[in-house]
TrEMBL record, chains A, B:
It comes from Flavobacterium calami. Zn(2+) 2 binds at residues 64-65, 210, 268. This is Ribonuclease Z. One of its GO terms (molecular function) is 3'-tRNA processing endoribonuclease activity. HAMAP family: RNase_Z_BN.
Length: 301, 301
């Protein structure tokens, strides 16, 4: 699992920082999460292949998470894309995109599918044979979802030595990989765990931005491998965080701790701060495993 | 008169080039012309004061001229702007902007005035005591206007030696500056040109993008000081220019020649070309005074 931060600063794009957008590579799938202005250029800078992106997830309709979407959708067309593109986001995202396509008289060269979200409960919005994506309802000034990306557990690994020792026919290998016990010709039952190893652990990633401190998300993201949680402010600006329905670095760390996350990635920093190191320092007073998100940074998990 | 090119490449933004946007400074007014994605960052890079922009002109609703507008409008709000902002553009621009503001529940901190254009005839869309702006109807795949910015002629300059020689009272100075003749006490009429010098010549700038080769614009832009005319293609791609309703560098130069423009600025280059010098070379076979527009370049006229 690999996370590339295209942008992780709040509010307006600047010459040196970009609004929210990131690419999650999970089980060879590339998911684009949020799409602030300049995302398509950030994709180019980070050498992400446009053609590998088939699913875009939009957390909410504030500009710093959205205003690069129409340009990305249009550029995909200009490049002659023919593969379907799926966009998941709050109700309204379809109208915003289609209105602009209509008025520019430039329809996409590919099929565009909108999956508009309205529920306030966590729901499965994407599922294939390897990955499942669920919403994480967040509390912000407008309707907002985070997204939980989970790998499905893979097959068990065949213990080839053991299998050969019991002289099991290859026809039964898939059954073993699927976790089944094997009954030998003499009626002996060999338990699966004697014939196979555990699969590679399934990874999970939770993207939570933008949100006020909200413990209601903990059951949804519990035991997540990597939690990206917004930290727009430091604790010194806690009243402002509460007022604007954002979080502090300390609050992000508290959610990571209570949710038993393995790692915490910080981001969505207010541009009022000169440097971002203090976010890490503050979070580490609560939670040990903190990574500083930053534009152009890739994390391999 | 000063022109700063923020972006002058066609279609999609890339790491090294930007879609169309430019700032014209004329008589101390700052006009933003077109607003492709990334314009607000280009404004920052070129140290243009956001607060000095009160009028934005949008030629047409293709993304490479428009998709940076909503971000610019939003950032003005985030910076706490209170001054009115006027946006001139094709019918539909208001719906695009207000829909996104509505769905993000983020109204502007300032008054936003839309001046939607529908006419196929040249019309005055802005006028104050120093500058007048007219549309230049262009032929493109969707409804498109260029814009002609004209300084109003200033007052005549007092010829102070002559005025003193005729012993003319200061009360008559403004009349002289306004071009009036003076009658002395003995009934002699002194013609204005003996008492004053011509004013500084009024400058004009015509922005023509995007458009196919179209001689119908010549009467509108005749004798213009500076003509910016799109040259998406070179003559080698003339059939493609015609098909997509764009122009070649040679065609841009032909319009400049026939309109008796003093200078021609080229731009809106297709990103298919490696360098832009060939555009200048091609245009110069037709018209002598060619300037290559390029991102981040400022011309003082």
């Amino acid at each position: 699992m690999k996370l590339t931060i295209l942008g992780c600063y709040a509010a307006t794009p600047r010459t040196i920082t970009n609004p929210t957008s990131q690419v999650l590579e999970i089980k060879n799938r590339l998911f684009l999460i949020d799409c602030g202005e300049g995302t398509q250029v950030q994709l180019r800078k980070n050498k992400i292949k446009f053609s590998k992106i088939n699913h875009i997830f939009i957390s909410h309709l504030h500009g710093d998470h959205l205003y690069g979407l129409i340009g990305t959708v249009s550029t995909f067309s200009l490049l002659g894309r023919t593969t379907d593109l799926h966009i998941y986001g709050p109700k309204g995202v379809k109208e915003i995109i289609t209105l602009q396509l209509k008025l520019s008289n430039s329809w996409t060269t590919y099929q565009l599918f909108f999956h508009e979200l309205e529920s306030n409960e966590s729901e499965v919005i994407f599922e294939d044979n390897k990955v499942i994506v669920k919403t994480i309802p967040l509390k912000h000034r407008i309707y907002t979802n985070g997204f939980l990306f989970q790998e499905k557990p893979g097959e068990r690994k065949l213990n080839i030595e053991a299998v050969q020792q019991y002289d099991i026919h290859t026809a039964y290998y898939q059954k073993i990989k699927n976790g089944g016990d094997i009954t030998l010709d003499d009626g002996t039952v060999i338990e699966n765990e004697k014939l196979s190893f555990d699969p590679i652990p399934a990874m999970s990633y939770a993207f939570c931005s933008d949100t006020v401190y909200n413990e209601a998300i903990i059951p949804i993201i519990e035991n997540v491998d990597v939690l990206y949680h917004e930290s727009t402010f430091l604790e010194s600006e806690a009243p402002l965080a509460e007022k604007t329905l954002h979080s502090t670095a300390k609050e992000a760390a508290t959610i990571a701790l209570k949710a038993n996350a393995k790692k915490l990635v910080l981001g969505h920093y207010s541009t009022r701060y000169e440097g971002i190191e203090p976010f890490k320092n503050e979070a580490e007073t609560i939670f040990p495993n903190v990574l500083l998100g930053n534009d152009g940074v890739t994390f391999d998990f």
